[in-house]
Amino acid sequence: MANFNEKTISKMYMCVFRKFNMGLPENSQLHFSEWNHNSNFIACGGALGTLKVVKIGMDVRDPKPNASALIVNQSLEGHNATVLNATWNENNQKLTTSDTSGLIIVWGLFNDQWAEEMINNRNKSVVVGICWNVDGTKIAIAYADGNVIVGTLEGNRIWNKELEIQLASCEWAPDGDMLIFGTADGKVTVYDDTGSHYLDIQMQCLESEDLEQALAKKENQKEEIICMKYWSPTLKSKALMELQEKEEKEQEKEKVLTGTAVFTNFSTRPTPKDHIEPEKNPEPYQPVPADRPRFMVAYARGVMQLMRSLSDTEPVVVRLKNLKITGAKWSPNGAFIAISGHDLNTEDPRHSSVHFISAYGQVVGFFQHFETRITGICWEASGLRMAIAADGNLFIGHVRPEFKWGAIEDTIVYAYQKEEQYQYGIMFYDYKIDEKTIKTVSYFENLASFKEHCIIINRQDDAGTIQYFCQLCNNIGTSLDYNMTTVRPKFVCVNGMCAVVACEDRYFIWHFVLPRTNSVQAGIHVPGKSGEYILEEQQRGIEFGTKRLLGGKDSICAICIGDTFFLMALQNGGVYRANLSDGVITSRYAVTAPIDSMKLNCDFTRLAVVKLVEQVPFNITIYEFVGDELQQIYNCEKKDVWDYQWDANDSHMLAFKDKHKMLICDCSSVLEQSAVYGNIFSFQNLVVTSVNIEKLLITPESPTKAVIQESMIKAKQDVLSLLNAMKLDEAIDYAEKNPHAELWNMIAQYSVFKHQFDRAEHAFVKLEDYAGVQLVKRIRNIPSNELRNAEIFAFREQFEDAKDIFLHSDRKDLAIEMYEKVGDHRAVYELVKNDPDEERKKEAFKEMAEFHYENMDWEEAAKFFALCEDIKMQIDSLIRGNCFGELEVLARALPDESDYMVTMGDAFTTRGMCDQAVECYLKKKLPDRALHCCMELNQWQKAQFIADANHMENVEGLLGKYAEETTGASDEKSVATLGLYMRAGRHLDAAKIAFDIANDRREKMMPIDDLKQCYVLGALLVEEHRQSIRELKRIDKYNMVENTLDDESGLTAEQTRILENTWKGAEAFHYMMLAQKHLLTNRIEDALQTCVILSDYEEYLDPAEIYKMIGGDMKKIENKDFLLALAAANVGQFGICSRAMMRLEVLDTLDEAEREEMKDLSFELFSQYV
Question: For residue 1103, is pLDDT > 70?
Fold first, then answer.
């Protein structure tokens, strides 16, 4: 199955391209057609016992689908009455048929011929349904009188039952455990695999109906079930799997060499020509969304019910107005349903049609046939072909989905479903260089493209609201801009400045921002305001004839975009013109309905419209804008238009396809061209380029160049043939009769190359190319034939050949001039790099530097700016490229008084490179800037050194002032000040702040481990201070500062206390944690020893906390137990316990109640244990 579903296509149409007569007498009917998805056989049958199995000789990958014929056409003898039903057993490759007499035959394939295997004839009732379960092991046969037979593949009966209902159809549930029956009165009921009633399905489609269908329904009319089918994926047949296994084994054998050649000039086996590795997974798995309906019941009067499961309480109801359904079939991937029928109001059933709907009930396309009565339809395995049984003929139709795809220059962009649920791949395939990029999106909705970019839209369900995410992407899938909208993107179009997203009643205009290559381009485009607009509100200001539209219920059916406006076609006729700047509708053009699509030409002066006309389904009409009117200037009658594209340069030329036949229209006549088997995405220079999207979607992740077809139109082919035959005068006569710029350009190129300067001048005059005329004049005046040829090569853009001739003629200056004109600075550089002319070399280096600078190749730009001695731009390139190592080298190489020192110093400062910045400032003799750089980067020691050396302001005062600004009541500010002093090398001040933070947190009863960390940090900072003192003593060889360092008279009392009690706070909380650990792990003696040590740290710990147990649970003591007393009592040290209790009783922190409790506890403890 080709990879497409309801999200990756917008419409679906079909055309019949082959008709096969099945040999039935006149007025006899075929009643069915069934396509085998594994072996490609088609079974069809009908009146007079006719039953045939045919096979179409075509491959869906073949770009020429019309080249098809019957390679198998076998008549099966066995039925004498009208054959009504047929079904394939895909897994076992069996065909089962039945006729009006009740005869059932099972056919099998033997030696490429279908033969009768089993037969059953009840002779009591008509067979209304035959179905195999999914794996083909069980068959169910339903008769109109209510008899049901369930049997095995071998023909053994499992069970049969007489149901007390009249049956119309039967179907297996996918699991093979349930049978679903449709009754003659339109009801649907479910039985289990033993024949017991299980469930009655509520048919909501019959409980309610619209007015038209209620009036059309006859009195006492029964609801006739035409089709009832539960979709499930088709399994690969056993025969096909065995064949694949056999081929794989043979390929493995070919890879193994079984012998050695005796003669080296003869190989042991012939080498296969153009061996192509087989595709491992030619058809990727397409997941089925959980919310997609899979069970279908279709009624004759145009009503259908689609259900996700047999117990679905919210089914999808489809009502096809004025249609009598004669057949319905699921597509192979379960995403679409094809419905055949005819007009309900006419007695002649020969006006037939096929409607295509999605599994969610949305109509996506149709096909009309006016000559036959369609009685049976079926899909081919790819989903791109259909077989139609009509009268006594079998028609083969080409299903034509309108895929969501686009083209960005040489890149094809298309969407396909990935193997993950709701995941879609957006393929960007550059066919020129054969490179691909896959961009994955969720819930894909639509895409559109324009020249160098495309718009990709996917759905996002956030917070219960549905929004659509619009991305602007380049040709490798990189997102350039984005926006969000609530407008459902049924229609999308885009130009170079904005995009339009529309649904039936609203539209959204998005003015995106594109990265511009230079400031001139950026200044030209002033983006408008993006916004959403409601069609009904915008209609109110538009007059049509003498009436003013007051909010009609019309809806949008197609859009296209110009430069400053866009067009909207309406379902009931008419085209609106709206501004892109503000979304206001400015004009309404009278164009008859219904419109399928429309496109504007290259200068937005003409409009091509494809309409849906009954006799010619897709008729194309060309209009021209004349003032405020839209005038019809050409109508292509009796053309079934499949695709069309305006010329990219010529506003009068339009290429379109009549099915697969390409035609060129110049708005006055139509010329037939060669066949094109794909979608047109480019028409310029008389070449039509197309891509076979259908073939791409067979293997969407492995695109090949073979899908691209370039078709040169006949005029260009004729002129090219004449020029190749050296018939220049005849080519000129042909161009005079069929003038086109591309033809004259070919003649001019050829004439210049052949030195036919008069004819070349004539061609350039026809092209109105003044530069070309001047070229011919200049070449004529060149005396040297070699130099003349070099100029011609340069004109034809064969610069290497021209350069070789120039150099051979010792005219390197002309080669340099040529490359300078075309802007190839690297070629100029290669020519002049060994030139003794320094000025020329410097100029070439300058051009190369600017070229790399514009392309943001900063290192190369800096290198060439250095060669041309442009120091300013070299510094700028190094800064932009973050090449600060090279910038430091440059700073040391420049003279001290260089004006660029400040620029480099500022750059180093912004990157936090203090040493390099100070060096630059000091070389420029700017100590004040160096000082402020150090202060800005918190390098206070360096700042003090610079201030002392240059007799500047007191850095200590600046640091203190800065610290006061950052110091505050919160921990965050205190920590910031701590960091400031640490960076400034003021370790003792930093330690004081650390200890202050610890004391503050201790009062706030913070966790003990946090307090310990604060005290440890303060102690480490004190050790850093001592280490810095020792370093200064070590480098003080002459004992000049020794006395100063030893003198502590300058220290405050607080600093002295810190130096004396460096680790005591950390030790206190360390022992506290250790005591708790010992106590909780029942190491009582260790806990006692640790608690005795803790008594020396009452300065840092609350005495009550030393003696009080935290979280104990021994005896009857809860939160009031004592750490030391408890530990001493538990190890029998009652003397220590007594002293601890006495100490607690005199603590000021305890109130009277707590003291009394202590006394009672002491009495109880000592009276019990002492």
Answer: no
